[in-house]
Each structure stands twice: as structure tokens, then as C-alpha cells.
DNA sequence: CCATATTGTCTCATTATGGAACAATAATAG
DNA sequence: CTATTATTGTTCCATAATGAGACAATATGG
């Protein structure tokens, strides 16, 4: 499974990987009622990028996505969705990657495989901010969480990719509601209050929801199991705790 | 724009095209209240496949999709949507393509580029059955419309691709409702009756809709303009004709 | 002229949603 | 120990959306 491949930057031919095909990840983390995404920073270049990766020759593409995601976040049980594939010629710009490689002391030739045209498959992931152990990739120096409002300038078309990921995530929320997949489970404690669940929805959708309607809707879906009352909390009535029903 | 490239089958290196990247098309046609998709047939091989294509080195991927679609259908103004990218290793099976090429009198070596592993970007299209001029690609001998219920055995994972296209199309119908894109326009006469529009929806969704609800909903969306009454028709009250409002 | 099928519209029951009220109650302040 | 306070679970009602059917209108075919 984990055969040794030459590190990417020292592999000018890209041996062992599918040529011209990349993956980019929009990794959403839920932290303090804020939605953040994980970016890589390249020191001395002022360049930021989405985490990315490549597909090995003997690997399913979706498996490759899980592998790279695990390498970047340390997490294996992740909600992951392929949302779009980006193939514009405008993506083909050698400048930023060359800058990054040069800042690393490399001096790639024009036909280094990383400098060729790539089509990139976009995935978005939802992960638990607290459980993640972000790890930079071999070319970058730093992993940082950014709120969507404070995104820095991103390489290539990565801003558009992040934007499209958010749109897809929001549009998917309704449809995923009924499904048993419970995308929300990995983002919440095992037992959570209705308020916490609502806050999660509001954070992702970027808008307020009505409390009574939300509760009614959620309870009507038969995806929640009510547990005992919560003991701790604030200066007010204790809320119930819920967990997702994991039947079948 | 239309630079001359060596025909695919005589181009063992795939010069001029992005390596390892294909596109597959699920072309939906609306005919006699039936939803059909366009398949290619390879004579003497008993093999059927979705129309496919490749991306040129100096071409946006989505432009390539329109180009190929135009080559296969003769249509240029087409509703086209990229819905998923298929990258399983199981797609990598030389046998069917080798059979096809041999039936054409070709004898490709194992590393002919068409026999290598491909990742394929799936697009679905909605076209007017009557306006289409289906044209087989250089390797196939025939274009045939099939209803979804009567699909023959398809090459590789093409059946799964068609299935996913249909699911995506159906799921998208609601969301596209509000939009001004009016995906339905190219599938209907310039002026159409409410019954025709409803039939279109029913055909795509594969289920009956309630007549009064459908009419109420459509009229409430403010996307239809009512014209004069239809003059011809059957032995019954003449229905109104409508057209889509094309404002901004 | 009559029968017939389909259309445009209307009505009423049912269901979903928005918006607000209200009692319950766990912590905190006195 | 009591009062205060914030938040919760629930209920209520107005409004909106949808399901299901009724009914008159009317081109065409007989």
C-alpha cells in the first residue's frame, strides 16, 4: 500500500503518478462557531494554496484523495465529496510553482512535471477542527486555518475552487438532510444539544435559522435519538442531549 | 481554432492531447415522451459505449466538451453540465478497446495511448432529439438512441456513468427551476403548451406530477410568458401557448 | 348538434413554515 | 435561601405551500 515513491520535487518526470492530474482539497473545519478552511503557506513567497495531491498509477482516484487527506490532517474517517474538476488553460501558469520551488532551493527545468499543465479534481471535506493534526506537504512550510472572510490571495484558481466548494456544500446540505450519512456527526461531540446542531447549520449556511422550526424539522426526520438532560451548562434550563441514530 | 491533429487511432503517442484524461458524455434526448441517451456501437464487437473525447493541449476542458459534443451531435447551443469524474483503477481494462481497434484492422501495441489508464470527466447534455444529427466517432460505426430501460451492455463503467448522470440531472431539476437558464428551452418548441412542459418534467423525473399543482407552480415562477391560444390540437379545449421569458 | 377529451381555474383539506409566546429550570447574584 | 436571568422545550396561530378533486369552457370528431 505505502510503496516508496521519490519525493515529488526530486521526481522531475513524476514517475509513479498519473500525469497532468492533480487533486485540490477544500478542507472545512468547524471551530468556535466559525467555518474555516485549511491553507498551505509557502514561506518567503507570500503564496498560499489549497492542499493538493496526486494520484498514483495503481490507486483509485478517490482512494488517493483519502490518502492525501489523511497525510494532511492525520484523520482517516472523513466526510469527503468530489465536487468539480477544473480544467481551464488559465490554470497553466508556471510562475507560482517555480517561485515556490526556487524558494526551496530547487531549480526545475521548464518541463519538470510539476510545471506542466494540470487538470485538478476538487474535493471538499468536513473535519473536526479539534481532532485534526495539520501537516504541511513537502513543498510548503505551514498549515493555517483561515475563515472564509479573511482568505489571503491564493495561487492560480484556488480561490474559485474554494468558492465553488462552499456553494456545493451549501446546496448539498438540504439533500443530505434526509440521508443517514449524517455528515454532521464527525463535526460534533458524540452527544450534542439542539443548539449546537443549529449553530453548525448556521455556520455552514452563513445565515440564521429559526429555533422552533429547526427543532421541529430535525425531530421530524427521525435521525436523532434523545438522551438524558445535560447536567452542566449556563445559567438556564438544561438542554437535552442528542445523538445520531446509526441504524442499519 | 481547428488545427489538424492526427486521427486518434493513428496517433499511438496521443500527440496534442492531454494524457490520461478522457471525457464521457451522457447525451439525453427527449423524444415522443421518452428520455433516451445516445450510444455508440462498434460493429462486429457487440460493444456499446458512451460518446467520449479528449482534451487538446491548448484547449479549456469545458471547451473541449462543447467541441466534442458538437462533433457528435451537430449542435452548438447545448445545455451541458459536468457532473462527476471517474478515476477507479477498474476502469483500466485494455480488452474492450483492443477488440474495437482490432475490428477496425488496427493492431495497437500495449502502450498505445488509448490503451493506457484514463480518468474520465463525465458530462451530461440535454438536446433536442429532432435537431440532432448524430455522427459516429472515428472508431465507431453507429450512433443509436436508447431508452434508459433498454440499455445494452456497456463498456467499462459506462453504465454507472449513465446512472450517475441521471441521478444528477434529477436532483438538479429543482434547483435549476428558479434559475433563468431555462434548461428546458432547447428541448421544446419556441412556443409550447403547459402539458408539453409537464410531460418533459415527468419524463425526466420518471414520475407523474399533479396537473393543477404543476401549473400553479410554473406560473408562480414568472419564467413563462403566455401567448395566444393554440389553434390546432385535439378534440378538446385549446391550450395556451407559452414561451420562456428571456430577460437578463 | 352532440359526445368527448383536455384545459384553465377554483375550492377545500392537508401539510409545512414563520414568528411569537410561555412555562420550565439551571446557574448566578444577592 | 430567594430572586434574577438566560436559554430551552413546547405550544399556538397566521401564513404559505401542496395534494386532490370539482367544474365549466371549448375545439374537434362523429
Automatic annotation (TrEMBL), chains A, B:
Keywords: Hydrolase. It holds the Pfam family NUDIX. It comes from the Bacteria. GO terms for molecular function: hydrolase activity. SUPFAM superfamilies: Nudix, Winged helix' DNA-binding domain. InterPro entries: NUDIX_hydrolase-like_dom_sf (IPR015797), NUDIX_hydrolase_dom (IPR000086), WH-like_DNA-bd_sf (IPR036388), WH_DNA-bd_sf (IPR036390), WHD_NrtR (IPR054105). Residues 20-170 form the Nudix hydrolase domain. PANTHER family: ADP-RIBOSE PYROPHOSPHATASE, SLR1690 PROTEIN. This is NUDIX hydrolase. It comes from Dyadobacter endophyticus.
Amino acid at each position: 500500500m505505502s510503496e516508496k515513491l521519490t519525493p515529488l520535487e526530486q521526481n522531475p518526470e513524476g514517475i509513479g503518478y498519473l500525469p497532468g492530474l492533480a487533486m485540490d482539497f477544500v478542507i472545512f473545519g468547524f471551530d468556535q462557531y466559525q467555518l474555516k478552511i485549511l491553507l498551505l503557506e509557502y514561506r518567503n513567497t507570500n503564496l498560499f494554496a489549497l492542499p493538493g495531491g496526486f494520484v498514483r498509477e495503481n490507486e483509485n482516484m478517490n482512494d488517493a484523495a483519502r490518502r492525501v487527506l489523511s497525510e494532511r490532517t492525520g484523520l482517516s474517517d472523513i466526510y469527503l465529496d468530489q465536487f468539480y474538476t477544473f480544467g481551464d488553460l488559465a490554470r497553466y501558469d508556471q510562475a507560482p510553482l517555480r517561485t515556490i520551488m526556487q524558494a526551496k532551493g530547487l531549480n526545475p527545468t521548464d518541463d519538470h512535471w510539476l510545471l506542466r499543465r494540470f487538470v485538478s479534481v476538487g474535493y471538499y471535506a468536513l473535519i473536526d477542527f479539534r481532532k485534526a493534526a495539520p501537516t504541511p506537504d513537502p513543498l510548503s512550510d505551514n498549515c493555517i486555518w483561515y475563515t472564509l472572510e479573511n482568505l489571503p490571495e491564493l495561487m492560480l484558481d484556488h480561490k474559485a475552487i474554494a468558492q465553488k466548494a462552499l456553494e456545493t456544500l451549501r446546496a448539498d446540505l438540504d439533500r443530505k438532510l434526509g440521508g443517514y450519512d449524517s455528515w454532521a456527526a464527525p463535526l460534533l461531540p458524540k452527544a450534542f444539544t439542539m443548539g449546537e446542531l443549529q449553530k453548525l447549520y448556521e455556520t455552514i449556511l452563513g445565515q440564521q435559522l429559526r429555533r422552533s422550526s429547526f427543532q421541529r424539522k430535525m425531530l421530524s426526520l427521525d435521525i436523532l435519538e434523545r438522551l438524558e438532560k445535560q447536567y452542566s451548562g449556563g445559567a438556564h434550563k438544561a438542554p437535552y442531549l442528542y445523538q445520531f441514530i446509526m441504524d442499519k
